[in-house]
Backbone:
């Protein structure tokens, strides 16, 4: 809230984006958005805003999403984005936060255009990266509310026991391709680079 006031915004949202098969969903960690606005906007729209080409990395120049102009973003129509203007989010800035392995994004919004201070926004981004990096375990627990399906969890469990893909397929009574598909989905959900990292994340989070 202090950073929101410092940049001249009215609202903030700290978001983790979780990938599930062919779509991305937002997991809201903290926000002062009205609950109804979140429900009307939907997780997919919030995830798209966070990951859009407008999202600025630390050191980059933030660009405003002017919702009244109804810009079409990846897979989201302009009318859906225009709804945010009606909900009091006329101007939105999306900032990427580098905190551990989990992709995090910070959205600042204002009810009117040109109220948010760009210099303060850049400073806030660095401060948030620093502050959140000191509580990565807490953030990980907030985000990692067991995103796996039962089958994905079973596959990772047997992999953690040293079983090969073919052995897991026999145990579960499915094909090897199906096992690989479940493991791939689990890797994506954990934003891991390989199955060993996904297994380690699942064990560390108490999921398996």
Residues:
């Amino acid at each position: 809230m202090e950073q929101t006031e410092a940049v001249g915004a009215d609202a903030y949202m700290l978001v983790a984006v979780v990938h599930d098969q062919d779509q991305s969903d937002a997991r809201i960690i903290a926000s002062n958005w009205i609950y109804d606005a979140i429900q009307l906007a939907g997780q997919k729209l919030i995830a798209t805003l966070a990951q859009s080409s407008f999202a600025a990395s630390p050191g980059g120049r933030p660009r405003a999403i002017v919702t009244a102009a109804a810009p079409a973003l990846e897979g989201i129509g302009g009318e859906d984005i225009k709804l945010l203007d009606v909900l009091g989010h006329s101007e939105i800035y999306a900032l990427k936060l580098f905190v551990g392995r989990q992709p995090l994004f910070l959205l600042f919004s204002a009810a009117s255009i040109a109220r948010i201070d760009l210099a303060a926004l850049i400073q806030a981004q660095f401060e948030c990266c620093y502050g959140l990096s000191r509580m990565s375990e807490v953030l990980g627990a907030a985000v990692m509310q067991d995103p796996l399906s039962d089958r994905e969890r079973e596959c990772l469990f047997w992999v953690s026991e040293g079983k090969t893909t073919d052995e897991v397929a026999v145990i579960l009574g499915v094909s090897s391709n199906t096992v690989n598909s479940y493991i791939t989905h689990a890797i994506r959900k954990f934003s891991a680079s390989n199955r060993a990292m996904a297994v380690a994340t699942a064990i560390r989070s108490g999921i398996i």
About this structure: The domain at 146-204 is CATH 1.10.10.10 (Arc Repressor Mutant, subunit A). The first strand starts at residue 11 and ends at 20.
